[in-house]
Amino acid sequence: KKRVAIFISGGGSNMVSLVEDMADPDHPAKPVLVLANSADAGGLAKASDLGVPVVSVDHRPFKGDRPAFEAALNAELDKVSPDILCLAGFMRVLTEGFVAPWEGRMLNIHPSLLPKYKGLHTHSRALEAGDNEHGCTVHMVTPVLDDGPILGQARVPVEKDDTAETLAARVLVKEHQLYPACLRRFAAGDTTRVDL
Ligand code: GAR
Fold first, then answer.
1. 110 flagged as catalytic
2. Site annotation (Raises pKa of active site His): which residues (predicted)?
């Protein structure tokens, strides 16, 4: 099985969806580490409950020294030799120095239909633009933020009374379907696009 490390920053609901899918004995991958950039990340307890090793590497003591923070991330990854790195709500920007060696083996989920709305506040931006459709994207990570080859997208309608919160919740349900579907294919060496 391919060895998967997952980076989170918050509640980790996408991480849970990936770990639960990998519980299938026929899955081509298994989780070897969940790493958060804060000991407060709610997802760490969830990962522990699911039997996955966890670690936190707090970015704050590095005071903006991204290469030093990334060296600490790499030190944790080196201990578990992952084949695939999944970003799942990881809210720190990674530099080219970190990303380049992982290129082709690192995935991310982003809450918009890329190339629309790279960066933050994707749901309010979709509402402000008057979009009637929104969604999420799983892509391979390159040094350019929220760029890179798309592995899959899932679409949801925008309803007329939507707030950023109601729209985010509708997208999140789809994220939990899309990311596991994409990781399954990717770990099996299949980069055929997933559309949900
Ligand atoms: C998800 O909606 C994910 O797409 C988004 O953060 C949320 C994390 O939720 N990611 C980004 O915005 C990346 N820039 P989770 O911790 O419950 O998976």
1. yes
2. 146
